[in-house]
Amino acid sequence: MSSPTISASTVGFVGLGHMGTPMASRLVDAGATVRAYDASPDARAAFAAAVPGATVVDTAADTATGAEAVLLCLPDSDVVEAVVAELDAARVIVDMSSSEPLRTRALAEQLADTGRVLVDAPVSGGVSGARAGTLAVMVGGPDDVVADLEPLLAAMGRPRHVGPVGAGHALKALNNLMSAAHLVASSEAVLVGEEFGLDPAVMLEVVNGSSGRSGSTENKWPNHILPGTYGAGFGLGLMVKDIHIALDLAASTSVPTRHAAATVALWDEALAELGPTADHTEIARWLRAHKEAS
Ligand code: NAD
Hints:
Helix 3 links the parallel strand 2 (about 35) and strand 3 (about 55). The protein is built from 13 helices and nine strands. The strands form two sheets. It has a six-stranded parallel beta sheet with strand order 3-2-1-4-5-6, with helices on both faces. A three-stranded mixed beta sheet has the order 7-8-9. Helices cover about 55% and strands about 15% of the residues. The protein folds into two domains: about 5-165, 3-Layer(aba) Sandwich (Rossmann fold); about 170-294, N-(1-d-carboxylethyl)-l-norvaline Dehydrogenase, domain 2 (Orthogonal Bundle). By secondary structure, it is an alpha/beta fold. The model has no long low-confidence stretch (mean pLDDT about 95). Helix 8 crosses helix 11, helix 8 packs across helix 12 and helix 11 (about 235-250) packs antiparallel against helix 12 (about 260-275). The protein binds nicotinamide-adenine-dinucleotide.
């Protein structure tokens, strides 16, 4: 049953891609009135077919009409800043993209000059988590505004207030750095095991009951890599963007991160060969191809 709080809500939503579509769909299912927009006509048409309960509007600015908040699920900080520049009528903007924390802070300060609030609420859990409404939502912003947003965010997953504005984006980048490292580490380990004569399926079964397990071994390997489908729905270009954000964040601190630098260098190489639209799980296939070529 939808909560009374959210069924009284009108929400703007910009960015109807792999994540935005199922996230906005959860809001509609929870009873909110959703005004949705994407720059791509194809994405708007696909969204209208997939989520008939939402209203698709013609501009980003139109999403703000009557909305208590406008939610963004866009590729990166460049796009977020460009879209926010069109959202004069939005008093509360929630950036659910994986953006750059320092730019998020600066944008929040700029909006505060005109009495508006930016909250960051990036997500983790992938397309399957977005469909199921089980995303981890990492929220940065002022206590009162974050409390008001709780019912909306809870329709998409498990919101956790992690600090002031920018804190969610910092945590999300660091999460993806760990995730990227786990995927490379498990891919190399599976290749070594196979070469030694181990069965990858057996390796994963045992590792998933052991200390080497991760989101890669529990989800990405069995669901997307072993079956050879590589359809997690998270682009390689977006993953590389995220881990560079983490590396820049590290550089803004005094913490040495040699392991992170090596991880990012490997992903950069994969991006150069596979391109940004490849699924990020294809790095496992890429590592195998390099083993076979060596
Ligand atoms: P996507 O590329 O599938 O969707 C992005 C959408 O933004 C596209 O439909 C695109 O047309 C639209 N867009 C681009 N520029 C625009 C503009 N100026 N105005 C309006 N719309 C515009 O990306 P995604 O996989 O949905 O990811 C969105 C964000 O969520 C990214 O920051 C990504 O890093 C993050 N994320 C993705 C996943 C995942 O599994 N796919 C998981 C967690 C977080």
